Fold this sequence. Notes:
Blueprint: H1 28-31, E1 36-37, H2 39-42, H3 48-60, H4 66-82, E2 85-91, E3 103-105, E4 107-109, E5 115-117, H5 121-125, E6 126-127, E7 147-151, E8 157-162, E9 165-176, H6 185-205, E10 214-220, E11 222-228, H7 229-232, H8 236-241, H9 266-281, E12 286-291, E13 297-302, E14 305-306, H10 307-327, E15 330-333, E16 349-355, H11 368-387, H12 389-394, H13 399-402, E17 417-418, H14 421-432, H15 440-446, H16 455-458, E18 468-470, E19 475-477, H17 487-511, H18 519-532, H19 545-554, H20 562-566, H21 572-580, H22 586-639, H23 646-671, H24 685-711, H25 724-727
Parallel strand pairs: 2-9, 17-18
Antiparallel strand pairs: 1-8, 2-3, 4-5, 6-7, 7-9, 8-9, 10-14, 10-16, 11-13, 11-15, 12-13, 16-19, 18-19
GO molecular function: glutamine synthetase activity
Domain GS catalytic: 192-619
Domain GS beta-grasp: 86-179
Amino acid sequence: MKDSFSNSAVNIRKIQRPQNADGKQSRIADYFASNVFDLRAMVKRLSSQDLDVMAKVMKLGGKIDAHLAERIAAAAREWAMEMGATHYCHWFQPQTGATAEKHDAFLWFDKQGNPIERFTGPELLQSEPDASSFPSGGIRSTFEARGYTGWDPSSPMFIMETENGKTLYIPSVFISYHGDALDFKTPLLRSNKALSEEAVKTLHFLGEKKVHYVSTSVGPEQEFFIVDKELARKRIDLKFSGRTVFGRRPPKGQELEDHYFGQIPSRVQAFFNELEVELYKLGVPIKTRHNEVAPGQFEIAPIFESSNISADHNQLAMKYIKSIAIKHGFIALMHEKPFAGVNGSGKHVNWSMQDSTGRNLLDPGATPHENLVFLTFLCSVLLGIHDNADVLRASIATAGNDHRLGANEAPPAIISAFLGNTLDKILNSLESGSGDIINAEKIMIDLGISHLQGVAKDNTDRNRTSPFAFTGNKFEFRAVGSSASISYPTAILNAAVCDGLSKINKRLEARAQNGRVSDNIILRVLKDVIKETKKIRFEGNGYSQEWLDEAKQRGLSNFPMTPDSLAVLADEKKIQFLIQANIFTSEDIASRLAIQQERYIKQSLIEINCALEMAQTQVMPVCLNYLEKLMDNVKLAKELSIPSPAIKFAEEFGKEFNHFFSALNSLKLQYDKISNEECYEHSKLNSTAVFIGQHILPKLVELRNTVDLLEGIVPHNLWPYPKYSELLFGID
């Protein structure tokens, strides 16, 4: 008998790759960034002087004056229309986690009333979308609807294609009428600027006077699940929350580890092929694609880029993953934990710093001086993480990530750093060394760190259980959730490192002579920092109970639930580093706290509502019908005086159904205590979030357990929605 949810054969979607003039398939390099208005596209349309200004702004940031903006707008319109675009939009990142846009046509009228195409400098620089419906966290009144998008010239414009049209997209910041940041991009840009200033100051103390700026680069790995579209649409929970609130483990999951790096299924391969073509045209440098650990789970990873552009590109990647998946008969799930019992999805943010000479400041060097620079910046990162661990944890706190963190598949909610055996021993040696450092170069040679180039990379294993793992020339922030915008956690990480640099700079400045600090003094300062930050360094298994116990003894915070984690944003001392660096104001942080709390409440209630509806309208009727059939069998057996196992089976099933009914009523009872609009009042956001986390979600888990048990008893063909065995293994 054919399964009621089995998917009929699906033809593999074929795509036409870009071709050259000879009709042959183009190389990736030939069409990479072909839809991007970058310096290559500007060459034919701007003067060399304008190009120089744009090259500087795109690398360092900065403002464009009105006259240059007019020339760039004209060039961008000409280029976009040649590409077939009819509209333009300011593309921005409100605090919804998604992107937003409002399209305007190039259409205008001249003085004689004739239709013309127009795009001016002021239109490029700024737009005014209605901001009243975007999250503001109480920083502005509802009636204050005005918001502004402002062009970010450091991230190039691009053409977005659809089946029936093309639009010029302008990466932008989003601010209120009073100048408050309402988005994720603005804090990231501010954090880049603040970190650069402190890092340059540090390098100047180290004698590196020729360095003019420092930038951060990011390479975010993106994990996601692919499920069959027709199967997914038969589940209320996947449709509305992106997560299965019910679902029994299939007979086979990921225990054989055969999916990881396995052969990519043909349908998924076709999806990847189309995804990469579209992203390459937008200049998104996707390098890697592969099967992840869980069945139905996959990953793409890009080449490193500047953090601002990387954040924009990750948003585009998520958008295209979802839209192209649909074309191939799939649904892409970005939720951090769409399926219980198998690994969830994260977004490992690989982060590093480069100076204006192109040097990676987290790359060990070939001379004692180079390694002194390396160790100084390494210690700055450790100090920033140590002093601001709680806020870093809050930056990745979401309802979805709570299901994933610390679940033997992702780092724990405890913030720690892993350096690997080589660096750990070096720092321990520096810490325990003599207090009177006479010859810094000799000390470094004695410690075996006069030439670290390649050594640290080769001797630093990847620790997948650590939230911050050093992997040779970068840190891997592994705790970021798969659905998150990387802009916000990257901004907080930048700010934390900026704080670490600032504190080291103050110590160096107090001992500087003529703006220069001797290597001996630097090593003394680093020795103190190593001692101060030792408690966040952990080289072992972050999944283990031993680490949880040890972390508690060390005094490290552990916030497994979002409400507790977010509460630190109300602590003035803990958020001071963000304010001092001019990345946020105290009002900004208060508003973002309210937005994150409200989002946690809404996401949780959506999942709870899905569970209630599925339990009451799907699970309950099916179980009642099945129970009725069992009772009919029992009645027939008694009438015929035939011994039947159906009697005992019906009794046991009845007990399990009663457990289900009891759990359902228990969840409804707790839910009714907060199911009103008052729970969204700002004064009640924290208490509502805490109540949901402590009292309602545990009841949802109890209900889930009873439903999943019933799923294993009720005949397969009667169950009302697709099971894990179909969802996770339905794409081959």
